[in-house]
Amino acid sequence: xxxxxxxxxxxxxxxxxxxxxxxxxxxxxxxxxxxxxxxxxxxxxxxxxxxxxxxxxxxxxxxxxxxxxxxxxxxxxxxxxxxxxxxxxxxxxxxxxxxxxxxxxxxxxxxxxxxxxxxxxxxxxxxxxxxxxxxxxxxxxxxxxxxxxxxxxxxxxxxxxxxxxxxxxxxxxxxxxxxxxxxxxxxxxxxxxxxxxxxxxxxxxxxxxxxxxxxxxxxxxxxxxxxxxxxxxxxxxxxxxxxxxxxxxxxxxxxxxxxxxxxxxxxxxxxxxxxxxxxxxxxxxxxxxxxxxxxxxxx
Amino acid sequence: xxxxxxxxxxxxxxxxxxxxxxxxxxxxxxxxxxxxxxxxxxxxxxxxxxxxxxxxxxxxxxxxxxxxxxxxxxxxxxxxxxxxxxxxxxxxxxxxxxxxxxxxxxxxxxxxxxxxxxxxxxxxxxxxxxxxxxxxxxxxxxxxxxxxxxxxxxxxxxxxxxxxxxxxxxxxxxxxxxxxxxxxxxxxxxxxxxxxxxxxxxxxxxxxxxxxxxxxxxxxxxxxxxxxxxxxxxxxxxxxxxxxxxxxxxxxxxxxxxxxxxxxxxxxxxxxxxxxxxxxxxxxxxxxxx
Lengths: 299, 290
Known about the structure:
Chain A is mostly helical. Chain A is built from 14 helices and no strands. The N and C termini of chain A lie far apart (about 50 Å).
């Protein structure tokens, strides 16, 4: 017994057991079950029969699903681009010598740590058609004469939820990029400045190349979580108006849980996987660490 | 935190004050205002009487006659205290369980280096990338088959699917930073692997454990889609789900109590976070680096 406990293979297996058991039962198995359900016509309370690609064929011709795919792509691209630029800007500002720096950093991260479902309710209230504070300010400034119907018009609603998503995601991007910025030695900037580099050149030729690996990771996470977002949409618009803000995740919930069509919902969820894999592979191969970023030479 | 191995002060002193005001302080002020405004708005709405809430006159940014009516309604006429209790129980139990499983797993992968440790580490990372929104439908079927539907156990057992990968990944990085020599000394002195883990590794990785714990706790406190799907009766709901599904009655929105619910539900994580900002940030950035 004692010898067994000092054998690294046996002990390793023993230590892995709790984590592995939980993950196999509640992660790997459901993942496989999800793929299987996508090929069946399962309903709530009834195990389905194998129907092959029927679900996917139906969804391909379904206009709501196509709209949801379009919305998801728009939501992901627009929100990720905005989060990246605003987050990088904020990170660069926070990297200056600021008074109360740690206070600012703590305050800025607040949107990221409070429950998204609850801050989404605040946005719902901010975007209210009759009492929106944004409309109130704009009317007082004389910029508009009627209250904006933020969530009643398809395009207004799309940009409103994108704004809420950006609000929630910028702190994460900013704080992680800040951690990356802090590892860049100031001597590099000094050397560049002595060589006559302008601030823009210092950013373009020093900051950006050294930051690329961490940008790749941060943006992969950001794209991943934006693409599969559920809470914001569910709370603010429930996919409305006229399905204009339905994402793949909210649509699959809608079809599977209140609608009862487990098989169809699972097929929508599984249809997200290729996009996620593409995003991960793109950032892995496109933006991975280059040898010169670690002091070596590039081939 | 400054860059390693340099005494340089940076070149910020070269910029004049007016220039810094425009390039740094002004944008920073705008960022902070926009990022914090929804919280201010939540708070002010919580204390506004309905008459002020539903009028377009006056200054909406301030309260004239603050009231506790919304909070009172929330605490005494809804199941809010029960949701709060559920959230606490689910978050604490699933965080502790995940942390325990993650410590063992991370130690096994990083230090025991059993055969197949490398692929296992990679698998853990991949598990972290699986989003809950593609898992909730099959998980709902499993939860139902296990007879856990509409119980707290449904949440306690499913939250570790995203907590364990995250905590393990974080702790693996932490354990990596502890010198091997300490373990070798203990092995020579006749300590067993278990003793090494408990008496040497764990005391040295307390900051890492706090980071992982805080982060896991907020993740499970904020979880929404599983709680929405696996629980249906009011007594078992968590705060985010309860506020979203039960406080909205028909077409009349009780903005005051909705905002009060959002505010009170956010406070525990915000307070916890404010005590452990550094740990939280290192947990967040630690998971992204490498």
